[in-house]
Design goal:
The complex is a heterodimer of chains A (69) and B (446). Chain A is built from two helices and one strand. Chain A is mainly α and 69 residues long. Chain A has a domain of 44 residues. Chain A is elongated. The two termini of chain A are 27 Å apart. The chains are: A mainly alpha (69), B alpha/beta (446).
């Protein structure tokens, strides 16, 4: 498996989701909520950038048995 | 009549029809070919042409038989037809009157398919509990399909357009004809080993025979046994193959499979923007909420009028004080009363009258005593006086009065002249006054 060192887009989206959920709880202390907010906005921008810069990578594994293309 | 040689068209046609109808070979024929010009007439009859590379024969199937068909005859289908050959007098065309039409070879396959489908359904392999969820944002997708097919090109375009984030691995696979079943099974296994997020098993539209590989039970089981979620997109919208039942997600076409597997990046951006807005709104709200709380706390009337904080206590203190004073006074009065009572009762027991009585007696007695003492004193004084008179006649002053004197030297009375020496100073006392003399001569005798 070639996993990326950094977290995947899905993980980022998931974390963003968690942050949103966490922030929707009433009892988050203000300091924590400010920190989460900062993280959330950063994540959101990062995800958008990733989407913008993305390029489809296609790799073809040919039939290792007989047959023409 | 010359004209007797000539037959009417009708008569000739009737003759020909008779020849066809009474021929034992044409009364029951079995013919195979490809359907074309298929027309389902509103009256329920089916009209068609049956052809092969060389010839065409028209055909008809009457409503009574057509209603019993197990499939819908369509253009291009290879079929097996049972029927009879006859002539339709109105146009003089010979045609096959079909009693039964079967899809060539595929009939038995369909039967097998129905059996397999039933078996797998009974085993619960189609149940939703076996459907693995498709990741929301797949990172790595494996396509199992024919690499050069239009279907694959469409899928790649779809990914490019919708979600270029994805990494595609295309496993070139034989999807029809002999060997395709084994190839699909092997490549599904290979795809499963890549640790991808999703496998797309796809094939573009084609005849039912072309798609048959995806109706094979072994292929369906291979799909069932992959650990990676499998999305199938086989044929056109109307084609539902066995793998579609068993896969984790069924898409009507390969392109649809690609669409269903990944989100649309515009939607994500939209969602991200919404999320950001929501976060900001929530945060502002949280701050606003706390501001409000602070405001209402600092505006709390007790903070503004601190006296309110201890008013109650002051009041209580005062009440207690009053109560205490009241209690004390009451107790005091009670005790004072008791004291007075005791005082008045003790008054009767006072020794003062007795003391006063005694005192009076004592005064009387001491008066008597004084009188007695005074009398004794008087007597004694008289006696003393008498003695003093006697004593007085014996005192030196009385002697001196009579003219005698006495001499003193150094404080001592001189009794003998011999105690004096010539030249010594002596003092001689008289009844009145004295003189100081110097001894001139001492005469001891005399």
């Amino acid at each position: 498996m070639n996993e990326q060192k950094t977290e995947t887009f899905e993980e980022k989206m998931k974390r963003l989701d968690e942050i949103v959920q966490e922030l929707e709880k009433e009892e988050v202390p203000l300091e924590k909520s400010l920190e989460l907010y900062k993280q959330g906005v950063e994540l959101s921008r990062e995800c958008e950038r990733i989407l913008k810069d993305a390029e489809l990578k296609v790799e073809t594994l040919n039939k290792d048995t007989d047959n023409e293309k | 009549m010359e004209t007797n040689k000539y037959l009417s068209v009708k008569a000739l046609t009737k003759y020909l029809k008779y020849k066809f109808d009474q021929d034992p070979y044409l009364r029951r024929v079995f013919v195979t070919g490809e359907l074309s010009n298929v027309k389902h007439h509103t009256n329920g009859h089916l009209y068609f042409a049956l052809k092969d590379g060389h010839s065409v024969i028209r055909g008809v199937m009457f409503k009574s038989s057509a209603g019993k068909l197990l499939f819908k005859p369509e253009e291009g289908q290879k079929v097996l037809i049972q029927g009879r050959i006859s002539i339709f007098e109105m146009n003089g065309q010979y045609q096959i009157y079909a009693d039964d039409i079967q899809i060539d070879g595929i009939g038995q396959l369909f039967e097998q398919l129905e059996k397999d489908k039933k078996e797998l359904a009974e085993k619960g392999y189609f149940d939703s509990e076996h459907k693995k969820p498709i990741p929301k944002y797949p990172h790595h997708i494996v396509i199992v399909s024919s690499a050069t097919s239009a279907a694959v090109k469409d899928m790649i375009t779809t990914f490019e357009r919708r979600y270029p984030l994805v990494r595609l691995t295309l496993i070139d696979t034989l999807v029809q004809g002999s060997g395709s079943m084994q190839d699909v099974i092997a490549n599904l296994k290979k795809a499963d080993s890549l640790g991808a997020d999703v496998i797309l098993l796809a094939r573009g539209g084609g005849s039912i025979e072309d798609l048959w590989t995806f109706n094979e039970k072994d292929v369906a089981m291979a799909v069932f046994n992959t650990r990676t979620p499998v999305v199938t997109g086989v044929g056109h919208e109307t084609d539902t193959t066995l793998v579609d039942y068993i896969s984790d997600l069924r898409a009507p076409t390969p392109t649809a499979a690609a669409e269903l597997t990944v989100p649309f990046h515009h939607d994500i951006v939209e969602k991200l923007r919404e999320t950001e807005l929501k976060l900001t709104r929530n945060q502002l709200q949280a701050i606003q909420y706390r501001k409000q709380a602070l405001l209402s706390l600092s505006g709390y009337y007790k903070f503004k009028t601190p006296a309110l904080l201890y008013d109650q206590q002051t009041e209580r203190l005062m009440m207690q004080k009053d109560k205490l004073t009241g209690n004390f006074n009451r107790h005091f009065r009670e005790h004072a009363y008791t004291l007075n009572q005791m005082k008045s009762s003790i008054g009767h027991l006072s020794p003062m009258p007795a003391i006063n009585n005694g005192r009076n007696q004592l005064a009387g007695l001491s008066e008597d005593l004084n009188d007695a003492m005074r009398m004794v004193n008087q007597n004694l004084r008289q006696k003393l006086f008498n003695r003093l008179e006697i004593l007085d006649s014996l005192s030196p002053s009385a002697v001196l009065k009579r003219g005698y004197s006495y001499t003193v030297k150094d404080g001592g009375v001189v009794k003998n002249a011999g105690d004096l020496r010539e030249g010594e100073m002596i003092t001689s006392h008289f009844f009145k006054g004295n003189i100081i003399s110097k001894v001139i001569e001492v005469n001891e005798d005399e």
